[in-house]
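Our consortium's second objective concerns turning raw sequence data into structural hypotheses that experimental partners can test. To show how far this objective has progressed, the report includes one record in full. It was chosen at random from the queue rather than selected for favorable results. The single chain below, 370 residues long, was entered without modification.
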Amino acid sequence: MIMKIERDQRRFRQIVRGRIRQNLRKYVTHGEMIGRKGRDLVSIPIPQLDVPHFRFGDNGAGGVGQGDGEEGKPIAKGGGEPKDGQGSAGSDPGGGHLLEVDMSLEELAEIMGEELELPRIEPRGNASIVQEKSKYNSIRQTGPESLRHFKRTYLKALRRQISTGVYEPDDPHVVPIKSDKQYRSWNTIEHPQVNAAVIYMMDVSGSMTDEQKQIVRTEAFWIDTWLSSQYEGIETRYIIHDAVAKEVDENTFYHTRESGGTRISSAYKACAELIEEQFPASDWNLYCFQFSDGDNWGEDNDESFKILGERLLPIVNLFCYGQIESPYGSGEFMGNLQGRFGDHEALVLSEIEDKDAIYESIKMFLGKGR
């Protein structure tokens, strides 16, 4: 019975994974999971997945609802049923429910990597920081009760009772004895601790709308999900800027409302100083993501390009620039970046026309496996 339940559970998880893969583009572009994120799990709404239930057969016999009659014809006073979408509220259950399934962020990242065909990231720099970790990967016959493996102990006791004829199906009590007990055990392994720092920069000038900020938030969630699956330790920092840049917390990054002109060099300067002070390139894998509508009215591009070319591109794994289409922005900065640094291996450019373009933008940013 236990083996059958486990088999059914694995089959159910496979179905869930398949449905998530089929609808991954929708989840990514429409932010289905934003706001559902817990510490280690996300709650995912799965459409068109029936909750298992019992169904009684008729064995070929007649029953209620069979026989002559027309659709919608009452069979008794007050017995008519309104068509879909009409009539007053009732107490019966409706159809078309969504089933929410909890899934770990690690498993979600694996599905995203498979569907987007993202290469595994090869960390660069010094991965010389070694940390000893205890990994529970074996079973022993002795150990503390706090490490007793309940399932293995139960199964061993069940097999013993069945083989000796003690087990009674009508009174299925399974009582482990000392020889049945199984305990989890560990081995100490050396694990290289490779760290990564992710720095998000966003233009919050008057031309950036709330819809554009939502696009940034959605894309950042999926980028974080993937990078967190590739590194043991990951640090995230946020920079906002109009004519002046400043480091802020996550909530401020996504919900601030600013106005004024745009000076992109201020964001690049703040990013370079943050890296130099907190994340030396010799010890950290560095990822910078900049989102803007392409305006840089407050200055010419020379200062921005100088900081980018001398202080950022030489040391980062990736510098990703996402230009979000805006009815107010000029959109000129991407073309200028392409003309100046278009052949640099660390620079990736993506034009994000709307939320439906997030899917391809993520693939473009992370597809190099750097």
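The partners drew two points from this record. The chain has three domains: 2-51+98-116, 130-191, 195-366. The first strand starts at residue 41 and ends at 46. Both points have been shared with the crystallography group to help prioritize constructs.
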